[in-house]
Amino acid sequence: MGKRFSTEEWDGMPERTGNAGHRAAPVHTHPDDVTLLTALSALADPVRIQLVRELAAQPDWTLSCSNFDVPVGRAAKSHHFTVLRGAGLVEQRDQGPKRLNRLRREEFDARFPGLLELTLRADESD
Amino acid sequence: MGKRFSTEEWDGMPERTGNAGHRAAPVHTHPDDVTLLTALSALADPVRIQLVRELAAQPDWTLSCSNFDVPVGRAAKSHHFTVLRGAGLVEQRDQGPKRLNRLRREEFDARFPGLLELTLRADESD
DNA sequence: CCCATTGTTCGATGACCATCATACAGTGCG
DNA sequence: CGCACTGTATGATGGTCATCGAACAATGGG
User: Taking CB atoms and an 8 Å limit, are B44 and A46 in contact across chains?
Assistant: First the structure.
């Protein structure tokens, strides 16, 4: 399992570290490189729990950041996605001006078995 | 300076909730009444992770608070135990001047399956 | 080539939290 | 009783973090 990015064929892309345009590619952290403390801290926030749940409720690569309905502004939302990437929970891919998201289910669950399932359980009020 | 309990007030108190002495019984929260956010927040702290692990490494009711080896003073340690009780992770029982501890394995695991096991896994550096 | 959309960065701000030192209280023992 | 031990409460402090507004940048469409 050497590949960390889904090296798909989103357009004829040159090198660029898997980035099609001139934009700085988002910094990702593989779950294997994530600490338990980091993972728990990332999920110990109501907004981020919400983001993860909304993300899990839709197919991969269908939601851009602006599509998430959380009660914070753009800046804070961007910050939360940075945290989620740093915890190995979310992968992002640029498509045009948008940044599409994917929940790293398998990888994260392999590193922290059960944690994601626990977070996605429906019977949680807050 | 704040309000302090006088011995007289407490001498008149009825119902000491299963407490043998005159000391205020520790406030417990059952895991069923605990929010996922609360549980994750409680475990998203290096000192508390350490406390839970040390607690899990010994038989129930064998460790008093002072027996735990964490790099904080008594006051902070007491605070951490309050948080752990509030998250349904720890149960405490007074015995003499000491306060003995027990990890609520079954109950907590029933409420948050896998979370405790995840925390107790040995291959975690920080 | 302008421009709306999307997302990031930056500085500031306020809230929360972990920690400490200190004072206080309960317990049991000599 | 007096004392050592154990844990809690209080108030202060410093640090981290979530949030915002505003400025900036990238992208693609008219």
Answer: no
